[in-house]
Amino acid sequence: MTVFAKILAGTIPCHRVYEDEFVLAFLDVGPLSDGHVLVIPKEAKAQMHQLSDESAAALGRALPRVARAVLAATGATAYNILQNNGALAHQAVMHVHFHIVPRFDSSGLAFTWNAGTLDNERAKVLVTKMQAALAQ
Question: Domains, the chain, ranges and CATH?
Fold first, then answer.
């Protein structure tokens, strides 16, 4: 049972920011900045692709609402929304979750974006495979 499952079950308390039938948002206990919020589906799935369409749609509705609330409460004018899937992607809690991290300066969060190049032939292969997967 993950820490998020325990929060959803009420065995671990949290500072609730938003809740509906499918989603819970609460303050992160180890914030990267003031107002750092976690947004989780109530459906217990480890990775985004495993979620039902209902849960995914509910997250899509909740994220902008919660982001607006974070900005209003903190006075921040910039923020990151982060979501990791799997250990190689730095996911620590194996329950889908989004971080909304208000940004005030460069502290608390750093990125290295090592961009490559997209080969045209490889792009064609990838698009064909992805479109076939979407058609299933």
Answer: 3-135 (3.30.428.10)
**How many Cα atoms are found within 13 Å in the side-chain-facing hemisphere of 62?**
26
CA distance linking residue 34 with residue 32, whole number of Å: 7
Lowest mean pLDDT among 29-43, 52-66, 84-98, 108-122: 108-122
The strand order across the sheet containing 98-103 reads: 16-19, 23-27, 37-41, 98-103, 78-82
Catalytic residue among 36, 95, 97, 99: 97
Is 97 labeled as catalytic in the residue annotation?
yes
**Pairwise CA distance, residues 76 & 85, whole Å:** 27
Structure tokens at 97: 């979750």
For 16-48, how does the pLDDT look when each residue is reduced to its tens digit (9 = 90+)? 999 999 999 999 999 999 999 999 999 999 999
Q: Are 84 and 90 in contact (CB under 8 A)?
A: yes
Whether pTM > 0.85 for this model: the answer is: yes
Nearest to 59 by CA among 20, 86, 117: 20
